[in-house]
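User: Predict the complex with calcium ion.
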Amino acid sequence: MSELEQKAINTIRLLAVDAVAAANSGHPGAPLGMAPAAHAVWQTMKFNPKNPKWINRDRFVLSNGHACALLYSLLVLYGYDLSIEDLKQFRQLGSKTPGHPEALDVPGVEVTTGPLGQGISNAVGIALAQKQFAATYNKPDFQISDSNIFVFLGDGCLQEGVASEASSLAGHLKLNNIIAFWDDNHISIDGNTNVAFTEDVLGRYKAYGWNILEVENGNTDVDGITKAIEAAKKSDLPTIIRLPTTIGFGSLAEGTHGVHGAPLKADDIKQLKTKFGFNPEESFVIPKEVTELYNKHVSENQQVENDWNKLFAAYKEKYPTEGAEVERRLSGKLPEGWEKSLPVYTPNDKPVATRKLSEIVLSNVVPVVPEIIGGSADLTGSNLTRTTDMVDFQHPDTKLGDYSGRYIRYGVREHGMGAIMNGIAAFGANYKNYGGTFLNFVSYAAGAVRLSALSHHPVTWVATHDSIGLGEDGPTHQPIETLAHLRAIPNLSVWRPADGNETSAAYKSAIESTSTPHVIALTRQNLPQLEGSSIEVASKGGYTLIKQDKPDVIIAASGSEVAIAVDASKKLSEEGIKANVVSIPDFLTFDKQDQSYQLSVLPDGVPILSVEVMSTFGWSKYSHEQFGLNRFGASGKGPAIYEYFGFTPEGVADKAAKTVQFYKGKDVLSPLNKAF
Amino acid sequence: MSELEQKAINTIRLLAVDAVAAANSGHPGAPLGMAPAAHAVWQTMKFNPKNPKWINRDRFVLSNGHACALLYSLLVLYGYDLSIEDLKQFRQLGSKTPGHPEALDVPGVEVTTGPLGQGISNAVGIALAQKQFAATYNKPDFQISDSNIFVFLGDGCLQEGVASEASSLAGHLKLNNIIAFWDDNHISIDGNTNVAFTEDVLGRYKAYGWNILEVENGNTDVDGITKAIEAAKKSDLPTIIRLPTTIGFGSLAEGTHGVHGAPLKADDIKQLKTKFGFNPEESFVIPKEVTELYNKHVSENQQVENDWNKLFAAYKEKYPTEGAEVERRLSGKLPEGWEKSLPVYTPNDKPVATRKLSEIVLSNVVPVVPEIIGGSADLTGSNLTRTTDMVDFQHPDTKLGDYSGRYIRYGVREHGMGAIMNGIAAFGANYKNYGGTFLNFVSYAAGAVRLSALSHHPVTWVATHDSIGLGEDGPTHQPIETLAHLRAIPNLSVWRPADGNETSAAYKSAIESTSTPHVIALTRQNLPQLEGSSIEVASKGGYTLIKQDKPDVIIAASGSEVAIAVDASKKLSEEGIKANVVSIPDFLTFDKQDQSYQLSVLPDGVPILSVEVMSTFGWSKYSHEQFGLNRFGASGKGPAIYEYFGFTPEGVADKAAKTVQFYKGKDVLSPLNKAF
Ligand SMILES: [Ca+2]
Ligand SMILES: [Ca+2]
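Assistant: Here is the predicted structure with calcium ion placed in the model:
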């Protein structure tokens, strides 16, 4: 390592230390330990700070997101749209330097990390998307996509199950564009990792099918790191490099968990700066020669991007169809008129399970929207997520598919799937990707789902078997709290379509979405096609399906209970009770409508009864009375369970009649009519 | 294998096949493949079908719970309280044989399985508890606890991250009482496992520190299985045995995923019965000699239990203190007067963070309640879950603790921790066990949390850093939807105490619980001790803290927002508005109170405003207006974020005044006053 390199590394280190000190909060330990690797990696990476979304950039994922002072320092040094001033505002309200890297707010941050295990799993998704993109559009004479994905991860990430799931799949898929560095510093928050984490990490990754490498000393051996990167690039397998480092390198408390999550003391910072050849009285210093070193890499990279632009221009000439498609995708536009492929239904069409209706949508749209790729967590035949003309995404050697395949066999790895989906979305090129599992097991992936919403990844969960209606599999498989959980996540669309038109509306919303993830909850059992539904009305998230003059009651329902509510309404009219029926397939979309529309659906003056065969939790925002299931379900035939719990036209009519009776003579305010 | 053994194995197989056929639903494939191992394992196990909760029984965990027809068949054959008639009712509503094994409903089922990966992880918890119990109470001359934990798991369980987490920890802890069988049948729902799962499983488990064994042919080699069990019992490490089997062994479709999750066809069943030497026209047949074979094992086991009873009687004489304690624990009684150790506070006591108040509770109760054990997912210093006199639960060779230790270093493995906690509870001996993490990361364990609630495991999550008040770590760490998610789970107590007395009440509820799991959400920041709180009133789950005559408005809040509501009430009184303040630390407990009490807290005639710094989802069940945070949080100093979002006395008073204004002249019905 040259003296200049050493200075550059120490500059990274001290910027991170100064940022944490200024905030009086944060994590200096990992930046001090990982700065040499960060320097070595970024000096080999291709990227353009002025065009951070360039599609053929190499990606850097900081899976141990608490080390973000390291990442922010790199972004400043390489000239991204992040300044020393931003660094001084580290962890302050409203700054561009939040306490964990937020992809949404900080240019150059590829994915939001912090929740451990997510970053490395996102990286698997980015790598998968890169392979799929390259296999789809590269030509023998035009490698328009060939980027690598670099990952830093710590002991914490390696302990998380989500990382295990994603890493196992990455090994299976032989995603050799992943180059991961394990920050092996023997420290986690509880102290020495020997209190809980003594497994043979490299042995495990070898078992996953990864290429395993080691660098002798991560604190000093930049050349060794660079050589490991070169070796990794030649591998046919994803690579993990064990990098022994000293947490808090150079600090008086180096090598202890004391430097993990608290600022260094003032005198410690001073001795550190002195030790590193910096003025102990100055902060946030960037030596000129360091700026020059990194500027040089940026300008070389500018040439790399220029060359790529020329390559792509030539590509478009030689392969105009593919070129136009790539260009369209990079612009974020869907194919013109794609939505015409969405199926529409009339009440004369036969009853069909919404999971089957979902399959029909996919069969129609997958051929016309090439950016759609999807898969299932080993429930393909139940989720009905694989259309007949989809090819599996597999390493070609397997003879089971190839890298241009659009169907991903995730295995029984829901959380890994969720994090990988986020990575696919983060790759760019407007990928719209979906993953199938039972609605109940979306919960396994809760950690990834909330990050989809936070990071605005427009991924879609095809969540079948959405209620007690799944029947015999019983309470372990029947969602009760799941929709409440998902509906409470900001920026998550949770659709529960009631028929074919609503299913098409759900997919229309999902595919057109650029910043909101979707969960589409679908039935195992057949549902009739409703009179009054359409893609257009359902696209408001909530609408009146049966509208009568001066209704006595409104029954608001979702999914499989809408048809029951319709039948209950008919039954009630025989008793002289006028019951409107409202379908609310997606709370988030309904909440986005203007209040006058909302109040036209759920007006003042009429008591509202909600009906849904799961937890009533949250339904009181739309209703005065709630009929649901605030207990776990039961194992038995689906219709028998519905009957048992009273989710029948008679049962719903009875609750509606009681609602009318109770509110007779009382002033009734719409729950949507609010004081503020 | 003898002819009789073969007949016994085929009896198990055909009972399972007949049960699935009768239900016309279920999973015949795994029972056909795993019956030989089931026979071999159960013939080595000690247990008493008439006393299924005998504390020193060996445990059997069917991690691939969909194979439950196998387990139910064994329970019938060994004479548990489950009959052939029950088997004929397989998967029917109200039967004792639900579609997945439910520990709560079926005697002999140790833990509820079906959601993949949970069973093996529960088994790690059972094994941990057994080691802790043995190390605490065994004496050199009295091995009163020495049971083994047998586990069956399939390819699905092995792909789940939760199983990876728990298995890594089991290897670290050297839990050599675990003997797991991997049903290596190369099939999962998507077909051949080679589409997604090609890792080297045994290599991975070796890396975790397990003993790995293989049986050549799981379909036929019962002696090989028995020998593997013997070898496993001698190991110093947990053991996993690779058992190659043929899914659907004997069926015309054996070896394909077609036999995984659907009944065999009628003619297939007939040829199967003929092949196995049974009458193809008969169903649910148990040959007399098979009954005798298994009865023999049961009566030998009866002697084993009798011997243990004698041993324990002698133990009680020689070690009266320990004997009395074991007896008390087995009876499910807590130590007399334990609750006197709960701290109480007055308004003069200083402001303290509820996470710190939680630590004080633990410091007080851990010494007097030996059945309390706990740990943290690598956040000990943040969760404050380790009292100063706790010893780590570690293998003694590590010199970091020993097996009588009561503090568990879970590592960064939240989901594994949740499943292990369930296993500890399932062991028996009235273990009350807790696990710490940030509230936001309880979501990582959602799959295990819902099973705690479903299976009535009284485990406790110490969930600190419970809001935006955690500050700088930012949106990735700040819960928004988490409480809504957890509150919507049936039978889950979700406490969010507002001060010291409420924290004590939360722990009182948790420790006295025998069938309801608890989450205790705790602040990072200091909170004042409230005037009017007490363990007694808080134990109602909701109560009036500030009560005024003819109030204009009620402010209902939880946790850190209660003190803000109190200050808002004072501010409002200056404006001539009378605002009652209600604290609702636990929805579930409050919902269990009688309606007259509930209506005394939230009566008709007064508009109610809820205040909580996270999603308002669900709060409309108690309030007319909701002030909360229906978006993700922000990175910054905690107080600055509270201020930014308006969670100040002024901000709350403003919302309350608007509420009063809006409802002026309107009839106001309590949201708890219901039509049905
Ligand atoms: Ca570490
Ligand atoms: Ca299998």
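Chain B touches chain A through 127 residues (CB under 8 Å).
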